[in-house]
TrEMBL record:
Protein name: Ester cyclase
Domain of life per record: Bacteria
Gene3D superfamilies: 3.10.450.50
Length: 180
């Protein structure tokens, strides 16, 4: 009997670890798991730094999430691998402690959700393509509406809408200041 892990099992382990480092990984962990040309197909509302390719983009996305959500963690429920394609069913958990900024296609600030202090547990399915022991592609299906309801973003109260407008104005000012 061989002691070498099956390539499909290795792909599953790589996919799971690449999810876990979003919550707790150092930049070197991303360099070790993410291909230099890897693409995160979920980068449509994330920070401009997360819209490029490779470990730096994935790390920028992790920093974005960690800034807004204290205690960020992922509970892994199921992992299914077929060759180099891996699906991971998980629950992302955390507490909303800082503004969560989403960005428009051009990289400008789109929406800002001021911190609510609430916790959430949102189900997600992540899909990965693994090549030569590295993540080369990621996409996901998430329960964003469920998460928004748990965090009190939906339906927004008039007071929360006011806080959102103030937070967006502040984030836009900070964004312009960083570009100068």
């Amino acid at each position: 009997m061989s002691t070498t892990p099956h390539p499909t099992a290795q792909a599953g382990d790589i996919a799971v670890r690449s999810i876990q480092i979003m919550a707790d990984g150092e930049r070197s962990d991303f360099d070790a798991l993410i291909h230099p040309e890897a693409r995160n197909l979920e980068d449509v509302v994330g920070p401009p730094g997360g819209r490029t390719r490779g470990p730096a983009a994935f790390y920028a996305t992790a920093q974005w999430l960690r800034t807004a959500f204290e205690g960020l963690s992922y509970e892994i429920h199921h992992v299914v691998a077929d060759g180099n394609l891996v699906a991971v069913n998980s629950t992302m958990k955390g507490r909303h402690v800082a503004p969560f900024v989403t960005y428009a296609v051009d990289g400008s600030v789109d929406t800002v959700f001021p911190p609510t202090g609430r916790t959430f547990a949102a189900t997600q399915s992540h899909w990965f393509r693994i090549e030569d022991g590295l993540v080369v592609e990621h996409w996901a299906n998430r329960d964003d509406l469920g998460q928004a309801k748990e965090l009190g973003w939906v339906p927004p109260t008039p007071a929360y809408l006011f806080r959102m407008a103030r937070a967006k104005s502040h984030a836009k000012k900070n964004s312009r200041a960083k570009k100068m």
